[in-house]
Write a structure and sequence with these properties.
This protein is α/β, with parallel strands linked by helices. The chain has a single domain (about 5-155), classed as Flavodoxin domain (Rossmann fold, 3-Layer(aba) Sandwich). It has helices spanning about 15-25, 50-55, 90-100, 120-125, 145-155, and strands spanning about 5-10, 30, 75-80, 105-110, 130-135, 135-140. About 30% of the residues are buried. The structure holds flavin mononucleotide (FMN).
Length: about 160
């Protein structure tokens, strides 16, 4: 049986909400990835070129630190994040680079104002050449049935 870990990053609760629905379907814990230095609302202001989130997203090598978290054994990592400037937040890069994902599978999901998931997934694939990064899904308004169908179509659940 496939062992699953479900980890998500969420600053304003939208991705957390989806992560909890997925966790319930799979009966696994939803593990929150948190920044070592919490983001303030000023840090998240995308209208301010010099806000923390904008500076991080503008710098492909930014690697914000995260609080240590405990994940059990897994073959498939289900990874959730908000889309920031078309891609995943740099803290996701920090996190995936800290893992040994060689030979493992990552199933991404995202929430966004409107952006589609593909660019973020393409960036993850570049970062993880030895990992099977499956197509991602934007889950803002996904019903439980839709989430189940998505998981099933990826041979999970
Ligand atoms: C710094 C920043 C950049 C963002 N960039 C985008 C974007 O490029 N496209 C988009 O559709 N939404 C963008 N958003 C909106 C978020 O993706 C959206 O609100 C998301 O659901 C937030 O998830 P959370 O509540 O889990 O943090 C951005 C938000 C922030 C804070």
């Amino acid at each position: 049986m496939t062992e699953i870990a479900l980890v998500y990053f969420s600053e304003t609760g939208t991705t957390a909400n989806a992560a909890k629905k997925i966790a319930k379907i799979l009966n696994v814990p939803a593990i929150r990835l948190e920044a070592q230095v919490p983001y303030t609302s000023a840090d998240l202001n995308w209208n301010d070129d010099s806000s923390r989130a904008n500076e991080e997203q503008g710098n492909p090598s930014a690697r914000p630190e995260f609080k240590p978290l405990k994940i059990d054994n897994y073959d498939t990592l289900i990874l959730g994040y908000p889309t920031w400037w078309g891609v995943s937040p740099r803290i996701i890069d920090s996190f995936v680079e800290s893992l040994n994902l060689m030979g493992k599978t990552v199933l991404p999901f995202t929430t966004s104002g409107s952006s589609a998931p593909e660019r973020g997934v393409a960036e993850l694939r570049k970062l993880l050449p030895d990992t099977l990064v499956l197509d991602g899904k934007r889950v803002n308004n996904s019903s439980e049935a839709e989430l189940k169908q998505w998981l099933r179509s990826n041979n999970i659940a």
